[in-house]
User: What shape does this take?
Amino acid sequence: MTVHGSFVEWVEKDILPLKKQKPTWKRLDGEAAGGNRKVVGEFRHAGLIWVVHGDSQFEPILRAYDAITTGKVSDPFIIKDATVRKCLDFVPTLRKAKQHKHFYAYS
Assistant: This one.
């Protein structure tokens, strides 16, 4: 698996082609529900390598990508402590109120 140099590079090389190939999928693994900790992508951000799990959804990834590429934000992420490691979460302007983030990236 390729470790992409940035979130934008990962989206452009892996996510956009997958979404084009599988337009009806809501999640990166094509499943409708349930957890999936299989690593489906890796990218660099803030000096760390982040792995993305298969149960991540397309919509929040594409929302963050759009925010970066249109200049709405320069960095869509904040780094939070998770149980064992660190995770990426969206800045408040990109989070939808009272919803899970549906984007699972850990370092």
